[in-house]
Amino acid sequence: MVTINVLGQLEVIAGGRDLAPTAPRVKAVLALLALNANRVVGTDTLFAELWDDRPPRSAATTLQTYVYQLRRILDSIPQGDRRCDIVTKAPGYVLRTGETDAERFLTVAEQGRCLWRQGHVAEAAERLRQALGLWRGHALADINLGPELTIHKAHLCELRLRMLELRIQADARLGRHQDLIPELRSLVAEHRLNERLHAQLIDSLRAVGCRAEALRAYQDLRRVLKSELGLEPAPDVQRLQAEVLNGVHGGSVTALLRTG
């Protein structure tokens, strides 16, 4: 069976081999079709991705050539393993395939979010961990992104971050603060302006009795926000800092930490 993956470098896995094309624009066409699997992608959308607002006169013929190259790759897969093809359907093309890793991520992430809302915290944490485990790096990592794929990537990356925040919140609810601290330190270094992650780090440090470190974490956030945006931390984070200063233990996690 063919598996098409976009949550990392583009992969077309069949029979244990990666058959992904190497030509940059052919890869872009496949990625856009995969991100819209089993739905029609119009030729105008593909033109916009490949050439922005300056398609050449030969755009239609060139696109047909790219699709032909992709069909040749899929046709090289034994019929019993294929279950994947590209069909012409007005006003463009459809990649008919099973679930891609992006679709699987969306499905499993939604399952995790539903479990969280239902109060099944441990199950939610595990399901969200499974969803996040589908990522092999940055989405579409080896593709030259045009405007359409840029939008898709931004959406996937934003959802990944939200699900990561929710998984961390679930782990915190389960009392796994000590294990979370190293991960959160790394995340706040990567997402310096994300107040939710900073707040969770402060809360986890407080939970394990590291008041001084929690206060330093707050001051680190305050410096970053002040220097880069000219802002103070959100009121919820300021209240969290006040709880730390006043020695409040086991206080409720602030509204800023709630997600899902």
TrEMBL record:
Transmembrane segments: none
Domain OmpR/PhoB-type: 1-97
Pfam family, any one: BTAD
Record keywords, A-Z: DNA-binding, Transcription, Transcription regulation, Two-component regulatory system
Record's keyword annotation contains tRNA processing: no
Start-end of DNA-binding region: 1-97
Protein family (similarity comment): Belongs to the AfsR/DnrI/RedD regulatory family.
Protein's recorded name: AfsR/SARP family transcriptional regulator
Source organism: Streptomyces doebereineriae
